[in-house]
Amino acid sequence: MNPEERARLVRQAREHLLFLQESGVLEIDRTAPPRPAAPEASPAPPSAPARTKPAAARTGDPAAALERLRVEEIGDCRRCKLCEKRNTIVFGDGAPGARLMFVGEGPGFDEDRRGVPFVGKAGQLLNQIIEAMGFRREEVYIANVVKCRPPDNRTPQPDEVAACTPFLFEQIAIVRPEVIVALGSPAAQALLGRTAGITKIRGTFCEYQAPHGGIRVMPTFHPAYLLRNPAAKRPVWEDMKQVMAFLKG
């Protein structure tokens, strides 16, 4: 290992430990969470929107299905006005068959340049959260409600969400995670069909109605919010501990 690589790893470890300290973590269980034999059922919210089984989810190869969704179905998308100022469509990132999925609001400046979700400052914090949970980023799947950057990072508008969420729903149907972490109000509202803000529903498991059965959803604060409000790291970590406990069965 060269000195530059060693320095990078030391820096990442220091940032990781700082996040844990700010979140009130006193000890870490580094054992890999086993796959539960039968996830417990949870009643679906009455307002959850009905969905049909997406065509892209019918393949046995999730990686191929995701690629087909990106290339053949989304393509050079012009379905809403967000296409006018974007640089890149930011599709998704991570393991095609991940047990854990994170869904955010939309790409920011760095994501729009690189074409990968959560690579800016908020993404670096999300990486720390993922690692603190005992996962590596490449072991989870990350996506957004909208695939193109809203101007000035504003909240996506209803018509933009309506144009893009069918692709998010197909990603979920392909990946088939056991738990989805909804990062912020727009993500929670899109997944659950609710209008409540994140402060009212965070920390409580809800359920997303997928074609193959319900998926647990944990609404929590967006990493960008944590950058502005470091005190919120503690409740987010409490939310993630619930996710970790569920995945351990």
Write a brief structural summary.
The chain has nine helices and six strands; from the N terminus they run H-H-E-E-H-H-E-H-E-H-H-E-E-H-H.
Tell me what the structure shows:
By secondary structure, this protein is an alpha/beta fold. The chain has one domain (61-247): Uracil-DNA Glycosylase, subunit E (3-Layer(aba) Sandwich). It is built from 9 helices and 6 strands; from the N terminus they run ααββααβαβααββαα. The protein has a 6-stranded mixed sheet, sandwiched between helices. β5 (206-210) and β6 (213-220) form a beta hairpin. α1 packs across α4. The model is unreliable at 32-58 (pLDDT under 50).
Give me the Rg, rounded: 18 Å
- What portion of the residues fall into strands of 2 or more residues? 5-15%
Q: What is the count of distinct domains?
A: 1
Q: From the coordinates shown, what is the CATH architecture?
A: 3-Layer(aba) Sandwich
**CATH H level, superfamily name:** Uracil-DNA glycosylase-like domain
Question: According to CATH, what is the class?
Answer: Alpha Beta
Order of H and E elements? HHEEHHEHEHHEEHH
What characteristic shape results from the CA principal axes? Answer: globular
- What is the residue-mean pLDDT, rounded to a whole number? 85
